[in-house]
Amino acid sequence: MRTVVCYLLLIVVLAGCERGALQVAHGPNGPWILTKDGAIHEYNGTGWDQKEPPGTADDFEMSGTFLVVLTKPDSQGNRTVKSREVDGTTWTTYPSLAPLTAEQVDCDGDEPVVRTAGSYPRVYKYYKNTQSWKNIHDGATDISVVNGRLFYLYPTTTYGNVWSRDVDKVPYTRWGEKFVAHRIAGDANGYPWVATDAKSNPLYKWDTNNQRWTSGFNIGPVYEMDIDSYVKMYVLSSPKVLSGGYTLYSHDLYSGGWTTYPMPDY
Fold it and tell me: Cys staple from 37: which of 54, 115, 129, 246, with CB 3.0 to 4.6 Å?
């Protein structure tokens, strides 16, 4: 009997609990997040509207009104890349990358970009004119695609790993020779912002005058981040939410103001 009571109490506690965010992207009217249960939510100004139900995605990204998702694995362990318009209901499903496994998804306009898993991850872009994937880059542990630029972290921990290039062509730009980052987000001006894996104040921005990295604004650990144009940064940071995932904050890159968001509760 005691065991049954405990289970019932656990159900009561978990019902209606907050959902933390695992991924964040800026949509046409504000932030969208992915929660641990695989649901996607859009912030409506006061709360969250669920745009896709639990079990939908392991990752997602947005470009304007274009939404691209990486689904949760099927029974064979395969993930699918698919997209739709923000206000649409019809999905476009893209060819499989098997035997490669997609681990992160982004988009160049309305064409998906993915980073594959493995010891030497690669970056592929889907081209609508050929209706196929093309390997556009070798070696990346985190990517961000903005205005035709691919920002990426090269898989090294011993020397500078922050790079960028045009999505469809070289040359490359290396941002600093020694700095090693953990997360990256590009802005609309063509500059990267990065975070280390430090527990406090891990954000850095590029000092164009002195050609070096300099501390950004103060924040706790950064688990994910995204930049809306060059105006606002969205950051997932502590505290961690009981049901899994993290708290969402936004920071105005001009005024310096902060916004803390309530998390979805269902």
Answer: 54
Q: Are 35 and 22 in contact (CB under 8 A)?
A: yes
**Residue type for position 241:** V
Closest C-alpha among 85, 92, 44, 55 to residue 67: 85
pTM higher than 0.85, yes or no? Answer: yes
Total residues found in the chain within this entry: 266
Q: pLDDT band for position 14 (50/70/90)?
A: very low
Q: What is the model's pLDDT at position 16? A: 60
CB 51 within 8 A of CB 43: no
Decide if 35 contacts 48 (C-beta within 8 A).
Answer: no
190: left (phi over 0), alpha (psi -120 to 50) or beta: left
